[in-house]
Amino acid sequence: MAVITWDGSSEDGSWGNGGNWDLDRAPAAGDDVVIASVSAPQLPPVIADSTDPTINSLEIESGGNLTAGDNDITIGGEVGGKCLKFNGSGVFTAGTSTIIITTADDSILDCDPAAGSFNNLTFNASSQTFTLEKNLTIGGNLTITAGELDTVNSGGTDWTLTVTGKTIIGP
Question: Which residues is 142 bridged to in the sheet?
Fold first, then answer.
């Protein structure tokens, strides 16, 4: 497990090109992925359709930008209690993607609404609780096959969850 940060060095925007990452390899299962802000001539990452990456956690820093395309992105862990962290001026372009959270630990979704909404979001982690740290919008479907989603954080703030598509609970 390693922290791997986007630096865009290859200037082609390809998630799968190891030359665009600080560790000179594409992210792998177990990696904590950080999408940093880059400026020309570097390009922000685009995940090519059907890549379907599996990673430990995902953070989009302020000024960072990630285009998810048509992919299932599996998040299998967390860092500092958070499986997803999207900072205010970061941008997440969901495309037709599905984020699948399978972490074995209770976890927080700290996704600034200004960063963008999810297309589809799936929780599939038995006996785990996922807590919103900010308002969350899902433009497609919310599926909870295993686990629990809590909209009230530890400080007592009740966050808004908006789902445009279907809400599916159960296997």
Answer: 121, 167
Q: Is 40 in contact with 13 (CB distance < 8 Å)?
A: no
Tell whether the model's pLDDT for residue 170 goes beyond 90. no
- Residue range 34-59: mean pLDDT, rounded: 97
Span 132-142, mean pLDDT?
95
| Whether pLDDT at 116 is above 90 | no
Closest CA to 159 of 94, 103, 112: 112
In sequence order, the 6+-apart residues with CB closer than 8 A to the CB of 76 are 29, 30, 54, 55, 56, 102, 103
For residue 69, CA distances in Å to 103, 122, 148, 162 come to 22, 16, 27, 21
Beta-ladder partners of 82:
79, 108
DSSP β-bridge partners for residue 159? none
List all residues 6 or more positions away from 163 whose beta carbon is below 8 Å from its beta carbon: 138, 141, 142
Query: pTM for the full model?
Result: 0.95
The reply to whether omega before 41 is within 30° of 0 (cis) is yes
Q: Following DSSP, what letter does each residue of 20-80 receive, concatenated?
A: GBTTSS---TT-EEEE----TTS---B--TT---EESEEEE-TT-EEE--S-EEEE---BT
| Count of beta carbons in the 10 Å neighbourhood of residue 4 | 21
